[in-house]
Specification:
The protein is mainly β and about 130 residues long. About 5% of the residues lie in helices and about 40% in strands.
Length: about 130
């Protein structure tokens, strides 16, 4: 297949609106779960430790601690099973992959919160 034909096939598979989130953010991922004939939405919350790929292949990894055990899940961004992604908290990081969090426990897994505030006014009337 040529690239143009492949792009046209893939274009209708992509989601129209993808929320903007970065590595280090704490997110709630709403995932569609099928149990027999029933469908329900389950929320998986945690810290985004990696984001990779491009286009239809783009995915991200979310990590959280459950019963003192680390749990990581990889979600394709454009999957129909990923219903919603909510950003709860923005974390400040200088890395693109936060795999070092796998070795940390407890409070050491926290990231500094990204604080977006107004610029400080300087008083020049003196």
């Amino acid at each position: 297949m040529t690239t143009k034909a492949l792009d046209q096939v893939v274009a209708n598979q992509l989601k129209k609106t993808v929320p903007s989130f970065r590595v280090g953010d704490t997110v709630d991922v709403h995932v569609k779960i099928v149990e027999g004939e029933r469908e329900r939405v389950q929320v998986f919350n945690g810290t985004v430790i990696a984001r990779k790929g491009r286009g239809i292949n783009e995915s991200f990894t979310v990590r959280r601690i459950v019963n003192n055990e680390g749990v990581e899940r990889v979600f394709p961004i454009h999957s129909p099973n990923v219903v919603d992604i909510e950003v709860k908290r923005s974390g400040f990081t200088r890395r693109s992959k936060l795999y070092f969090l796998r070795d940390r426990v407890g409070k050491a897994t926290r990231l500094r919160e990204k604080w977006v505030g107004k610029a400080k006014k300087t008083d020049t009337s003196q």
